[in-house]
Design a protein that fits this description.
The structure is a single chain. The chain is of the alpha/beta class. The protein has a single domain, classed as Alkaline Phosphatase, subunit A (3-Layer(aba) Sandwich). It is built from 15 helices and 17 strands. The protein has a 10-stranded mixed sheet with strand order 7-8-6-5-9-1-10-16-2-17, sandwiched between helices. A 3-stranded antiparallel sheet has the order 12-14-13, covered by helices on one side. The protein has a two-stranded antiparallel ribbon with strand order 3-4. Helix 4 packs parallel to helix 6, helix 8 runs parallel beside helix 9 and helix 12 runs parallel beside helix 14. The longest helix is centred in the last third of the chain and has 25 residues. The N and C termini lie far apart (about 50 Å).
Length: about 500
């Protein structure tokens, strides 16, 4: 699809949330039977703003921004062997990774970076998805990453280190000695059991859709089929599932992985429509199928709990590739529209949209300006109107360094590995003649780093009792909201 057509087509998805506020108000006193939790991995406030400008323009809104309840989430983790906030031995870690953040909303405890389903002292804690499954609700887990990656794994497994994914046991990737008292744990301990082995055997999620086929093997496939799963593709032969396989899955428990690694970025599939990767289902398609499978269950009256992750927002932000990041934001936002459309009709579904952390210090700068990374020296540290407004270190003139600023990184400077200039993109407000990578494009995007930051992240909600989230909340509170809404508190 041409980019201009893509930009025009985005207006269609916005209509799915028209009247959302009125519907949420009408349903505010309704009983919740379903929760759909959508997570844009690495998605900070600027990611949302950039996505809005790119696809809807300055006066438009992403689907998630149209939801009637808005809040923000604190994302910090804790250090190993720390207590919880308020405890005497509480020690914060101000920048979280995906594992500790996912454990916070999945299990309601702060933990150390890399831990999944255990607290900071290594104690196993139950997950919201396990509690939902035990209570007889249907459960689903969808991700554009490997399904053993941190965010989906936090709902379905308990390991001391997120690298303990599979397919085989590795002491180096699974043991965390200082948390467990200095002694290696036996391989029978769940905390050193690879995530893939746990997922294939514990039945926590009834519907599992994503990537990561290479993490599973023949024994895993046998274990899944033994529990009644319809396995799309084959872990035994490493045959990935297809969009046709997904379409033909009509009921019951379904396990489908569509790539041996992470799913393919949206930009590549758009630009290569005849490639094998283009046949992978999109995140909105996976979300719609998961909702359909969970909603038509024989246990429908008890409801369902579904988690959906747009994982590649984070992974492409780590890579500082703004073009790929933008299209992943769009794909995630389209999945939000699918969830809200279902909830608006159902009237008993709570939709939560948030992120685990911000990734890479994504920034929007003024058109025609430059970043500190491009500067010969940082901005001048002087206030000529009040000389007292200065501090060390002293700084020189704020000017560009030609060797570090040779044009937009996705345009004229794309061939220069030393170039730190912004990436530029046309928006819905630009004339059709404006191209990405041009100085005339109105959206100028930069990155602060290639790693996570400690920023609070946005929170949007829709449906019964969503007003509980109109606040600045700890990420652990999301566990309380989900389990309280579904009446499955531990």
């Amino acid at each position: 699809m041409a980019l201009v057509a893509l930009l025009s087509a985005t207006a269609l998805s916005a209509t799915t949330v028209v009247g959302a506020e009125a519907a949420a108000t009408q349903a505010s006193s309704s009983k919740i039977t379903n929760v759909i939790y959508l997570l844009g991995d690495g998605m900070g406030r600027t990611h949302v703003t950039a996505g809005r400008d790119r696809y809807y323009g300055a006066s438009g809104s992403l689907n998630m921004e149209r939801l009637p309840v808005v809040g923000q989430v604190r994302t910090y983790a804790v250090q190993k062997n720390s207590g919880q906030p308020g405890d005497p031995d509480f020690v914060p870690e101000y920048v979280t990774d995906s594992a500790s953040s996912a454990t916070a909303w999945s299990s309601g405890v702060k933990t150390y970076n890399a831990a999944l389903g255990v607290d900071a002292k290594g104690t196993v804690v139950p997950t919201a998805m396990e509690l939902a499954h035990q209570a007889g609700l249907r459960t689903g887990n969808v991700s554009t990453a490997e399904i053993t990656d941190a965010t989906p794994a936090a709902q379905m497994s308990h390991v001391l280190a997120r690298g303990c994914q599979g397919p085989s046991y590795s002491a180096a990737s699974c043991q965390v000695i200082d948390v467990t008292g200095g002694a290696a744990l036996p391989t029978s301990d769940i905390r050193v059991t690879p995530v893939a082995d746990q997922i294939a055997r514990n039945g926590t999620a009834d519907v599992i859709l994503g990537g990561g086929l290479s993490r599973f093997d023949a024994a895993d496939e046998a274990a899944l089929k033994g529990q009644g799963y319809k396995v799309l593709g084959s872990p035994a032969s490493q045959t990935v599932a297809t969009r046709a396989d997904l379409r033909n899955a009509r009921s019951g428990k379904v396990f489908g992985l569509f790539n041996k690694g992470n799913l393919t970025i949206s930009k590549f599939k758009r630009e290569n429509p005849t490639s094998p990767q283009a046949a992978e289902p999109t995140l909105p398609e996976l979300t719609k199928k998961a909702i359909g499978l969970l909603d038509q269950s024989t246990r429908k009256n008890k409801g369902f709990y579904l988690q959906v992750e747009g994982a590649l927002i984070d992974k492409r932000s780590h890579a500082n590739d703004a073009a790929q990041t933008l299209e992943e934001i769009k794909a995630f936002d389209d999945a939000v529209a699918v969830a809200v459309d279902f909830a608006r009709k159902d009237k008993h579904t709570l939709v939560i949209v948030t992120a685990d952390h911000e990734c890479a210090g994504f920034g929007i700068i003024e058109k025609g300006t430059f970043t500190n990374a491009e500067a010969a020296t940082p901005p001048v540290n002087a206030d000529t109107g009040n000389p007292a407004n200065n501090s060390t270190p002293a700084r020189g003139a704020n000017a560009k360094d030609p060797a570090r600023s040779t044009g937009p990184v996705n345009g004229s400077g794309s061939a220069d590995p030393k170039n730190f200039a912004p990436a530029t993109f046309r928006t819905a407000d630009d004339p059709a003649s404006v191209q990405d990578g041009s100085p005339d494009a109105s959206l100028w995007l930069t990155y602060l780093s290639g790693n996570h930051t400690g920023q609070d992240v946005p929170l949007y909600a829709y449906g019964p009792h969503s007003s509980e989230l109109a606040d600045s909340v700890e990420n652990t509170m999301l566990f309380d909201v989900v389990t309280g809404a579904l009446r499955i508190q531990p």
